[in-house]
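Box 4.2: Ligand-aware structure prediction
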Amino acid sequence: MKKNSPREELRELADLTLRYVRQEGDSLPMQPSGKVPDDISQPAAVELDADKEMASIDAAVLACEKCPLHRTRTHAVPGEGDNKAKLVFIGEAPGGNEDRQGRPFVGRSGELLTKIITDGMGMTREEVYITNIVKCRPPGNRDPLPGEIESCHPYLVRQLEIIQPKVICTLGRFAAQCLLETKAPLSRLRGKQADYNGTPLIPTYHPAYLLRNYTKEARRQVWDDVSKVVEILTI
Ligand code: SF4
């Protein structure tokens, strides 16, 4: 009999959980809408089992119905990579390819990001962690709405608490603005090291932007940003 991959097993588990929750309805001790269950939102006081903790977040995201984006998604996309990575990339939201495959940064943007990681940083994709501000695709790839970001944010917060990266690299205007809680344009944010709750944050362009503007200047700027990330990793 064909053995399912861990991700397929996780998805089946999420589907089973969702079916159970729907069947049991009001009899379950559900949290109010928009609130992450306590076992996800509270920092662990003891040493974390990162894989186990991350698996529970993945399962919660795959079954999540906290915002309207669950109605139009094909797959939720929690994120992927090393659960103890020193570097975390954060984009805006899954696009069409990501929604179909349930994986972050696939398709042409994903290929370019992988190239930046391997050729630009001398690392592998498996060594880093890649996720997004919201875990489900907004219809038509529109910007996520404030309520959607607010509903989804606890998942990202918990992912970062588990991973405890040495540096965060945001991809595109939206991710940088969300994490730094600013409306400043990316032209003002990139090129400078920022701080997210004590972790260095380097904003750079989204690979999709780079694909549309594959100019010498844009590539040089990304190279500068990536060099800064590598410098922080090697301190
Ligand atoms: S975007 Fe986030 S909060 Fe909204 S349904 Fe998906 S996982 Fe849940």
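In the box above, the bound molecule is iron/sulfur cluster. The radius of gyration is 18 Å.
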